[in-house]
Amino acid sequence: MLEALKQEVYEANMMLPKLGIVTFTWGNVSGIDRKEGLFVIKPSGVPYEDLKPEDMVVVDMNGHVVEGDMNPSSDTMTHLVLYKEFPTIGAVVHTHSSWAVSFAEAGLPLEALGTTHADTFFGDVPVTEALTKEEIESAYEENTGHVIVRTFKDQGIDPEAVPAVLVKQHGPFTWGPNPKKAVETAKILDVVAEMNYHALQLTRGDIRVPQYLLDKHYYRKHGANAYYGQNNAKSNSGATHR
Ligand SMILES: [Zn+2]
What is the pTM assigned to this prediction? Predict the structure, then answer.
């Protein structure tokens, strides 16, 4: 069942240690088949070197395992909430990559400070509020999804234009049209967080990019008028951003 998607999700999971954005088993990737209403996710707690494509677990939109011998990632319910609430996304990634986690722990959004950021994220990457005691003690992983969705709704952010979030006191989630792209975004997020950290050490001034530079870099790569790269017809973020 969903063998091609399992392979894709497996390969995307294996990119995490290669890209240096995961330590031990602290990360997971999933991908969804919207037609089938099923998603495929990494099993919980299995070291990357032991992982096989057939180990990927198939889960339905109620969080029930449909196929697979192992328990799905403990973060499965967070992925599920994101798939339900962000209906255009095709994949979700969670890591504890150090630079992104540093901002999540400090409770700081990643402000757009340069073109590296603007090439991928059309504005600041938000940080959520901390989960309450009640949210943590009941349905913790599901509530992690809800706090992410709430953050985007409250701040009026389009999840396609800013495909990442920092969950306060926890770490980053990213998403995208497919598992590979969502993993690339997780790496970009961590690189941008590292740059952001250093830039903030060097000044106390307001170094946010102006809107016109953000527009230029984001729309060079995204939407109907994108002209970056070789195949603009396949630009995958749609033309409807803001
Ligand atoms: Zn985590």
Answer: 0.91
